[in-house]
């Protein structure tokens, strides 16, 4: 399935976020700048891409039709998601945050029934509420077990308060990202391509990032030159490349909840990329014991998602062949 390969490639670039966010925290940089600078740096690049493709006017027109929808869901999908994730980076190594972030796979599956699929019938378009994908949920829960095992290694050295303040923001981010992404796919309704949608969401989130930046100037002062450089790298690798690849993959399967859950499950491979990157770049100790078992369970869950999706596709093809006969 091409979408799964695209999702894994996106995960590799997403991993840069966790590695460099942790690096910036270790150097004394504030999460306020780690979050806001990514999107402030993303904007000109996305603007240039949209301008070169001559479809800026279409994005603006679509945004003006539903401004509050764009502002609200862009806040959820970009601001609430990323501010929470960077805040959590202050409380543990990147692989730990990345491991907890895999809760987004379960979140994506649970959100399915809150959305509808439009089916064309003889009487016109019919809106049908999506069903909860029980197999996808069970596989996602396997991944959740892996996440829990990863957390156990760190839990012994943390107070209850530290656990809550380190994990709760990631849980918020895990639900905010797929919710914002899926809602914006509904708002766009196929009228905008992936680049236009990412640009539109970035533009709609700018007022919030500017407010956060002003707060940062008052509270912690300006960012260091090192944080500026690392935030720029995150903006390109994660904000532009990874986000675009991931949105392309989800756009291609947006009408099929099982496949959408499988694409979202590819994010589990981030843990491996983050772990390797932190060991090489930040000299972070390798996880051990139950954490290693947890990592393998997460990877197993991702492969099961892939296998389950492949079976769905095979069955759908068989039904089409039967009908054509």
TrEMBL record:
Pfam families for this protein: EmrE
Spans through the membrane: 5-24, 30-50, 70-89, 101-120, 132-152, 158-177, 198-218, 230-249, 261-282, 288-308
UniProt protein name: Multidrug resistance efflux transporter family protein
Record InterPro entries: EmrE (IPR032713)
Domain of life: Bacteria
Origin species: Aquibacillus halophilus
Keywords linked to the UniProt accession: Membrane, Transmembrane, Transmembrane helix
């Amino acid at each position: 399935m091409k979408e799964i390969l695209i999702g894994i490639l996106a995960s590799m670039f997403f991993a840069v976020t966790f590695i460099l966010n942790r690096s910036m925290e270790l150097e004394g940089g504030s999460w306020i700048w780690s979050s806001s600078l990514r999107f402030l740096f993303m904007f000109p690049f996305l603007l240039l891409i949209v301008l070169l493709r001559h479809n800026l006017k279409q994005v603006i027109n679509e945004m003006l039709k539903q401004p509050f929808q764009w502002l609200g869901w862009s806040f959820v999908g970009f601001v609430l998601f990323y501010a929470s994730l960077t805040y959590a980076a202050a409380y543990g190594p990147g692989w730990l945050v990345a491991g907890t972030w895999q809760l987004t796979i379960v979140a994506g599956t649970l959100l399915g029934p809150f959305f509808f699929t439009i089916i064309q019938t003889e009487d016109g378009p019919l809106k049908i509420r999506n069903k909860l994908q029980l197999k996808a949920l069970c596989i996602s829960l396997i991944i959740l077990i892996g996440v829990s095992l990863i957390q156990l290694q760190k839990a012994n050295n943390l107070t209850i308060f530290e656990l809550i303040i380190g994990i709760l923001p990631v849980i918020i981010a895990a639900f905010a990202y797929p919710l914002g992404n899926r809602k914006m796919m509904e708002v766009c309704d196929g009228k905008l391509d992936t680049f236009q949608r990412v640009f539109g969401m970035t533009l709609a989130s700018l007022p919030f990032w500017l407010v956060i930046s002003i707060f940062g100037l008052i509270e912690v002062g300006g960012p260091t030159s090192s944080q500026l450089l690392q935030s720029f790298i995150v903006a390109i690798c994660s904000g532009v490349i990874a986000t675009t690849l991931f949105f392309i993959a989800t756009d291609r399967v947006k009408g099929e909840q099982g496949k959408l859950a499988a694409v979202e499950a590819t994010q589990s491979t981030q843990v491996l990329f983050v772990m390797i990157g932190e060991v090489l770049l930040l000299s972070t100790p390798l996880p051990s014991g139950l954490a290693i078992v947890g990592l393998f369970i997460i990877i197993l869950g991702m492969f099961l998602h892939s296998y389950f999706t492949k079976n769905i596709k095979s069955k759908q093809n068989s039904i089409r062949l039967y009908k054509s006969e």
